Amino acid sequence: MRFRPLIPAACAAFSLSCSALAQQAPAVSEAALRAHLSFLADDLLEGRGTGQRGGALAVRYLETQAAAIGLKPVQGGLYRQKVAIEGSRLLPGSEVVFNVAGKRINPRIGQGIVFGTGSGQTALSFEAPLLFVGYGVSALEEKWDDYKGVDVKGKILVMMVNDPQPTLEEPNRFSGKAYTWYGRWLYKFEEAVRRGAAGALLIHTTPSSSYPWSVPANGFSHERFHLAGPGNRIEGWLHEDTARELFAAGGFDLDTLRAQAERRDFAPVDLKAAARVELKSSIRQVEEFNVVGIVPGTDPALKDQAVVYSSHWDHLGIDENLPQGRDRIFNGAVDNATGSAALLAMAAEAVKRPARRTQVFLWPAAEEQGLLGSAAYVANPVVPLAKTAANLNLDSLNFVGRTKDIGVPGAERSSLYGTAAAVAKKMGLKLAPTIPDLSGAYFRADHFNFAKAGVPAFNVGSAVFSGDGHFEFEHAHSHASAKMVGFKGDYHQVTDEYHANWDLSGMLQQTQFTLNLGYAVANAPAMPAWRQGDAFGRVKR
């Protein structure tokens, strides 16, 4: 599709100046939104699993729709961006045995320990000493270093989940009671790789991780995925009971060491124990794809800059481990056929009225496997990160009705918050109150890879699952809230399915807000900036 500027007569016909018309985002179609949603969530797409047939079908649908809409391909006439992924599954015959002070501790897989490999090797047999490194955090801006210069090469690091907790003297360290990136399991695994450790084992507690033991136990019982490349020889989780037994056998009290790890002067502790690891895995190389389409900008001075809209296309696919005769398809209607459909509906309108800056529509792969597709995009962006104004992410949209407010958690980290407030006001909305991020939600969606790389980014309207009442509905508030709270039981279950009687007015509202905000950023004189002092603002793009 060729884009031609509106001539003055056309602007007059709309009773608007050309300048004003160019500043406005076009209206999103609810019919298009519903049509895409119902298809993407259908059993035909088999849950859009990574490395599965349903995922390939989803990619084919998205790139076909992108072409039909009129989005420009990224290179070579293609809408695909390759994401090289490695899949690993633990095989029988694997075990970890701890030897400490003459005692042999052999925790049962799934109950006392879960583990796998990120090394890409099918068979590993080695012994390594255990080193307790507290939270395993090295944060210059917090003047915090749990490693104290200790060489951890070849050691298995035992770490606490979460990050150093606030104190009376320092109530705001590591963002107070809110979760930070340093508290996430992914940061800890990555830090072990960076330091050349043999691996990492995280001590699970429900309060520190914000989820029960069943979550890592279930995750490690299935095929796990990571971007192809260097990884830990072993990575996993210890049940708290296993950790207590292990520490005690070496003459240590787990709670005492935990308390020490809350101090800046903490130094790594040799647990006087070794792990003998026998790790057998099936490894496969998976070629997945992000889908990317572009609406070129119109301003000669700004068109080389871009706003990126993103929404992951994948879900959990088919689980062959479930008993025959029952539903095995994890359709992922809310998570995240809603967001994928919204991006298509937005793109269909954006091509009709380009903004001053370029708009990039990105459907990342393998979000459910650890934000892999967005990480691959950030490593190889269509528009350089230094010229990427913002990333607006959509994940699991409102499916129960219109609201009086909109959630923008994380926007307060940058000038995007002020822009979002102005856009909301024009739509007759207000911004939902900013609340402490106690579960680390900001670090669990695709926008985070952009933020980590220095691009102002957040997930629009992600308050949908909170059930804490800070979404205000226009009608039938208690009924709508009950449906949202009820969805918690469908999250990552086969029951996350599309229903034709869904009220998509709130989803349309959320989608329109995102497009309006994107246009406000795309047409602004300057790119957004991080709030002074924000950790991500220090990142060089």
Describe the structure.
The protein is built from 15 helices and 20 strands. Strands 1, 2, 3, 4, 5, 8, 9, 10, 11, 12, 13, 16, 17 and 20 form a 14-stranded mixed beta sheet that branches. It has a two-stranded antiparallel ribbon with strand order 6-7. 48% of the residues are buried. 28% of the residues lie in helices and 21% in strands. It is of the alpha/beta class. α12 links the parallel β18 and β19. The longest helix is centred in the C-terminal third of the chain and has 19 residues.
Query: What average pLDDT do the residues reach?
Result: 90
State the helix count. 15
Distance between the termini: 32 Å
Q: Which overall shape is indicated by the principal axes computed on the Cα atoms?
A: globular
- The low-confidence parts are 1-22, 462-471, 473-479
Alpha carbon gyration radius: 24 Å
Strand content: 15-25%
Would you report the number of β strands? 20
Can you give the helix content as a percent range?
25-40%
How many strands, what sense, and barrel or not for the largest sheet? Answer: 14 strands, mixed
* Secondary structural class: alpha/beta
Offer a few descriptive terms.
alpha/beta; 541 residues; two-stranded antiparallel ribbon; globular; 14-stranded mixed sheet; single chain
